[in-house]
From TrEMBL, chain A:
<keyword id="KW-0067">ATP-binding</keyword>
<feature type="domain" description="ABC transporter">
    <location>
        <begin position="9"/>
        <end position="244"/>
    </location>
</feature>
<dbReference type="GO" id="GO:0016887">
    <property type="term" value="F:ATP hydrolysis activity"/>
</dbReference>
<keyword id="KW-1003">Cell membrane</keyword>
<dbReference type="InterPro" id="IPR003593">
    <property type="entry name" value="AAA+_ATPase"/>
</dbReference>
<protein>
    <submittedName>
        <fullName>Sugar ABC transporter ATP-binding protein</fullName>
    </submittedName>
</protein>
<dbReference type="GO" id="GO:0005524">
    <property type="term" value="F:ATP binding"/>
</dbReference>
<feature type="domain" description="ABC transporter">
    <location>
        <begin position="247"/>
        <end position="499"/>
    </location>
</feature>
<keyword id="KW-0762">Sugar transport</keyword>
Automatic annotation (TrEMBL), chain B:
<protein>
    <submittedName>
        <fullName>Sugar ABC transporter permease</fullName>
    </submittedName>
</protein>
<feature type="transmembrane region" description="Helical">
    <location>
        <begin position="156"/>
        <end position="185"/>
    </location>
</feature>
<feature type="transmembrane region" description="Helical">
    <location>
        <begin position="272"/>
        <end position="293"/>
    </location>
</feature>
<feature type="transmembrane region" description="Helical">
    <location>
        <begin position="213"/>
        <end position="235"/>
    </location>
</feature>
<feature type="transmembrane region" description="Helical">
    <location>
        <begin position="299"/>
        <end position="323"/>
    </location>
</feature>
<keyword id="KW-0812">Transmembrane</keyword>
<feature type="transmembrane region" description="Helical">
    <location>
        <begin position="97"/>
        <end position="119"/>
    </location>
</feature>
<feature type="transmembrane region" description="Helical">
    <location>
        <begin position="12"/>
        <end position="28"/>
    </location>
</feature>
<feature type="transmembrane region" description="Helical">
    <location>
        <begin position="126"/>
        <end position="144"/>
    </location>
</feature>
Length: 505, 344
């Protein structure tokens, strides 16, 4: 490890704006020499945007980057590699049909006149991989080796080309335990060489195992940088999920009216979600909490029939119903605003008017078109009540901001007058104004007697509107909080319970 | 229903057609002359409309298929199958209307097959329809037993070579079917739902649209349109030629849809614009013929003309035109962000 006290990389005031959203807001991050630094945050927190700004994929809208004491301004991935910042992504972007040595030396092969000095290249590759403790034949095609080895070849290539900062984006996502160990030994060697490593992952255990410090992002802002030997997993989780609204006085939530609407019995799908039971009443908001990949979206999709369940029963108004696809669900008065608005929600090139009417029209069937006058009436009604900002109803929905797109999707479902509305991350990636409007709308719909199931990664949001919160972990329901139990702290504790336990053991 | 937007949509095709027709007039001053002889209209314009019938019919179905982000390469082969079916039925002594219904049924079955591969098995449309494109001519040959099956049935021949009120029957058929289809998809919600699937099938499915059935439907419509075209072609030459009927016409149909300004990536479509595209292609053919060029130039010149049309319609050139227009007068409104938004 080097003793040079100046940081390897120091970035301040990094900002990045996308139409309608602030992706990064005045972000500061410092990477020391020989440090493994975790970059944490839920999806959409700005991790990948930050990486892309640091490596020149995106042009940042503000901020300065100092690398090894010098101001730098990376313009492209290539440029940042030359400067000394290398990146390895989860899906290895090497050429599987070339040999390991060729992959390592692509674009800078040792030459022998006009020919590639193959033997020298293989020897060099063998040597550099041995340094990482890997003894393989570099003359074999890369695809002959498991993903972990490919990952390490990618790292070796990045380190040889750059050698100051190495960014690892979800490197362990597709590796098994032994492979992770192998990768970690390589990362520790890089640390010993004085390279600053950025480690992005969703696995907190791994973060605590290998990282020195962690920077947590939320909504495009740095919410904290911590020395990991001084904090617990619970601290980090609460940083990631946030609880700054804790102090705010809580309005008393309207009581649910009590009539049972939907009974879910042992609904599940193997490999996706363990069977669960859930009863939902009219005028009730049930929250789904859990970390990314815990099964929130899967729960919503199974109930709505977007993914067909393997087993389980649904009873609506005490009558058995069968839901095989979203069409069935819509016919029974269900509605779902999906998590991924862009790929599963909006129909980008259709007009706002058509997007609003789509679900109602689909339910009526194509033979009974809704008259233009009626369509305009419905569309204008929702534009007014949901305060959707647009130039006119004819414009394609893709031109709207994230928040307005979300409101159009809500309008699409409200137009079908649903009994049961499922919202998956209704406030992700939308601006603060629309954010609070949507939360207010959830409260309003509940008062009107609608049953809602809301999956959200924002604890304080759930605390604001949910009558009950179901906590999910590892594709299982692990807890339920009701009434006064619903606080950010309790939710975080329920999510962290098991991981914490393992951490101590 | 005929609105300002409709005219705006088909304006580029109208202009191109006008230019090509004008070129026709330049090389052949009598181009627009129409005469009435022996109870039938004669003239180059009538010829263009008549000869363009098969492509026009194909591009009705092709437009719908392409709107769903698909493509139907099998239409040429389906034409051959349908022609062979109709011919063999009348040769066997069936009434001509029975033969036509039989041919259309076969076309619908072909479409059902394509739809099954695409919508149920989820095979990529270009591959799925390639199967029938290759196999279809074989099927047609089996039906005609390897010969050119000729017939003399007056009723069937009328569909290809006859006239109604002096107008060639094929012209009436494609204009009627094209108009019907265009009217139908816009008067029902079908057009919007098809566009929705083509733009984003995942979203559409989650919105409760039965995308499978709709996908199968568009391929069936395409098969039926191809069958009509096949019957007309067979009736015109009074025989079913399994090898040559509709050969390469699927490419002309796709081209017509593209000239009609419909994106191969699916989504927004206009059947009327596609039909104009088909007539533009036929007008180009006529132009080459009338110009008296040696026939060996034909394909090259056609390619050049169509390249020119496509370049004019390309997004790059379109953007340039947009920039040129936008930069001259002051821009009136800011469409995206009303002032209110920034106050928050």
């Amino acid at each position: 490890m080097t003793n040079d006290p100046t940081p390897m990389l120091h970035a301040t005031g990094i900002s990045k704006f996308f139409p309608g959203t602030i992706a990064l807001d005045d972000v500061e991050i410092t990477l020391n020499r020989g440090e493994i630094h975790a970059l944490l945050g839920e999806n959409g927190a700005g991790k990948s945007t930050l990486i892309k700004c640091l490596t020149g994929v995106y042009r940042r809208d503000g901020g300065e980057i100092t690398l090894d004491g010098k101001h730098v301004n990376p313009q492209s991935t290539n440029h940042s590699q030359i400067l000394g910042i290398g990146t390895v992504y989860q899906e290895v972007n090497l050429l599987p049909n070339l040999t390991v040595a060729e992959n390592l030396h692509l674009g800078r092969q040792p030459m022998y006149g006009p020919f590639v000095a193959r033997r020298a290249m293989n020897a060099a590759a063998k040597k550099s991989l041995l340094e990482f403790g890997i003894d393989i034949d570099p003359a074999q095609p890369l695809s002959d080796y498991p993903v972990a080895i490919q990952q390490i070849v990618a790292i070796a290539r990045a380190v040889e080309m750059s050698g100051k900062v190495l960014i690892l984006d979800e490197p362990t996502a597709s590796l098994d335990l032994d492979e992770v160990k192998l990768l970690f030994s390589v990362i520790r060697q890089l640390k010993a060489r004085g390279i600053a490593v950025v480690f992005i992952t969703h696995f907190l255990d791994q973060v605590f195992e290998i990282c020195d410090r962690a920077t947590v992002l939320r909504n495009g802002q740095v919410v904290g940088t911590r020395e990991l030997n001084q904090v617990s997993q619970t601290d980090i989780i609460s940083l990631m999920l946030g609880r700054q609204l804790e102090a705010r006085l809580q309005e008393p939530k309207p009581k649910s009216s009590g009539t049972l609407l939907l009974q879910i019995k042992e609904l599940g799908k193997s490999g996706m979600l363990a069977p669960f039971n859930l009863n939902i009443h009219k005028g009730e908001v049930v929250g789904l909490a859990g970390l990314l990949g815990s099964g929130r979206t899967e729960t919503a999709n199974l109930i709505f029939g977007a993914v067909k369940a393997d087993f389980g029963q649904l009873k609506l108004h005490n009558k058995h119903i069968q839901i095989n696809n979203p069409r069935d669900a819509v016919a029974h008065g269900f509605a779902l605003c999906p998590e991924d608005r862009k790929t599963e929600g909006i129909v980008g090139d259709l007009s706002v008017r058509e997007n609003i009417i789509l679900a109602l029209q689909a339910r009526q069937g194509w033979l009974r078109p809704i008259s233009r006058r009626k369509v305009d009436e419905i569309a204008q009604h929702y534009v007014r009540t949901l305060d959707i900002r647009l130039a006119n109803l004819e414009m394609p929905i893709r031109l709207l901001s994230g928040g307005n797109q979300q409101k159009v999707l809500l309008a699409r479902w409200l137009a079908t007058d649903p009994d049961f509305l499922i919202l998956d991350e209704p406030t992700r990636g939308i601006d603060i104004g629309a954010h609070s409007e949507i939360i207010a709308l959830i409260g309003q719909l509940q008062k009107d007697g609608m049953a809602l199931l809301v999956a959200s990664s924002e604890m304080e949001e759930l605390v604001t509107y949910a009558n009950r919160v179901i906590v999910l972990r590892d594709h299982k329901q692990v807890g339920e909080l009701t009434g006064a139990e619903i606080t950010s702290n309790n939710i975080i504790r329920a999510i962290a319970a098991e991981t914490e336990h393992e951490g101590i053991a | 229903m005929i609105s300002y937007n409709f005219f705006k949509r088909i304006m580029p095709q109208m202009i191109i057609l006008g230019v090509v027709l004008f070129l026709n007039l330049l090389v052949f001053p009598d181009f627009f002359v129409i005469e009435f002889q022996n109870g039938r209209l004669f003239g180059n314009v009538i010829d263009v409309l008549n000869r363009g019938a098969p492509t026009a019919l194909l591009c009705i179905g092709m437009t719908l298929v392409i709107a769903t982000k698909g493509i139907d390469l099998s239409v040429g082969a389906v034409m051959a199958i349908a022609g062979a079916t109709a011919a063999s039925l009348v040769v066997d002594g069936h009434y001509w209307l029975t033969a036509v219904i039989g041919a259309l049924t076969v076309g619908a079955i072909c479409g059902l097959w394509n739809g099954f591969l695409v919508a149920i098995l989820r095979i990529q449309p270009i591959v799925a329809t390639l199967v029938l494109m290759v196999a279809g001519r074989g099927v047609a040959q089996l039906i005609t037993e390897g010969t050119i099956l000729t017939f003399l049935d007056e009723g069937l021949i009328h569909l290809g070579a006859g006239t109604v009120f002096g107008i060639p029957t094929p012209v009436l058929i494609w204009i009627f079917l094209g108009g019907l289809a265009a009217f139908f998809v816009r008067r029902t919600a079908l057009g919007m739902l098809i566009e929705s699937i083509g733009i984003n099938e995942a979203s559409s499915r989650l919105a409760g649209i039965n995308s499978r059935i709709l996908l199968i439907c568009v391929y069936v419509v395409s098969g039926i349109c191809a069958a009509v075209a096949g019957v007309i072609v067979a009736a015109d030459i009074q025989g079913a030629d399994a090898n040559n009927a509709g050969l390469w016409l699927e490419l002309d149909a796709i081209l017509a849809v593209v000239i009609g300004g419909n994106s191969l990536l699916g989504g927004r479509f206009s059947i009327v614009a596609s039909l104009l595209g088909a007539i533009i292609i036929q007008s180009v053919n006529s132009l080459i013929l009338l110009s008296g060029m040696p026939p060996e130039f034909n394909l090259v010149i056609k390619a050049l003309l169509i390249l020119a049309i496509l370049v004019i319609q390309s997004p790059r050139v379109g953007h340039l035109i947009y920039i040129m227009r936008a930069s001259s007068p002051p821009i009136k409104s800011d469409p995206l962000t009303p002032a209110k938004e920034s106050n928050r």
